[in-house]
Amino acid sequence: MNNHKRNITLVVADTQFLTNEALKSILSPLYQVVHLVSTKAGLLQYLHQETISLVITDYTLFDFDSIDDLGEIRKQYPDMGIIILTNAITHIKIKELNDSGIKNIVLKTDDGDELFHAIEAALKGKKYYSGDVLDILLKKDGPMEDASLLTTSEIEIVRLIAAGLSTKEIAVKKHISFHTVMTHRKNIFRKLSVSSSPELMMYAIKAGLIDNIEYHI
């Protein structure tokens, strides 16, 4: 890497103190400005006030409502790079991120070179998945392929069902009609070839749509 600081402003958006401080220590000698934020409000404030070249975030720990939040940021700041740095990633979530225009993903267990490769790619507007992320994408066993047929909205509804929300509560939360939620449910059941909510939950856990801890009986 170049020993001279580059005139680039980065934001590290993570709720883990040690992660933020470690990344700042690694990146500060190389890039002119490295901001640390632990809330979405703090991130949006920096994006509004300054020209940010790159955001590095663990979206699973941050207070994003969904991946759609990241997609909206991507639309508002199309020239800004976004890197996902996480240990909670699945085939389905990679697809969701890709659909939102976010195509730079690295695991926290990867070595430093992978992160720097991702940074350089993101700054040039190019895609970069680390080797371990590519391994996840290449795994074709299990129900992943069927689950990937679900739309982003359908995946969100599966997660709300897993959280214990009723059809009426889902309709209120998503600001859609009861009938629309029922239609989504029918489509989800049809696509995944399941016939009950418990069967849907087991399928969703195996497919990586939800974690065991997300499922409320």
From TrEMBL:
Keywords, ordered alphabetically: DNA-binding, Phosphoprotein
Q: Give a Pfam family name.
A: GerE
Q: Where is the HTH luxR-type domain?
A: 143-208
* Sites bearing 4-aspartylphosphate, chain numbering: D58
UniProt key word DNA-binding: yes
Task: Outline the extent of the Response regulatory domain.
Answer: 9-123
| Cited SMART domains | HTH_LUXR (SM00421)
One MF term from GO for this chain?
DNA binding
* This protein's name: Regulatory protein, LuxR:Response regulator receiver
**Gene3D superfamilies (alphabetical):** 3.40.50.2300
A biological process (GO) of this protein is: phosphorelay signal transduction system
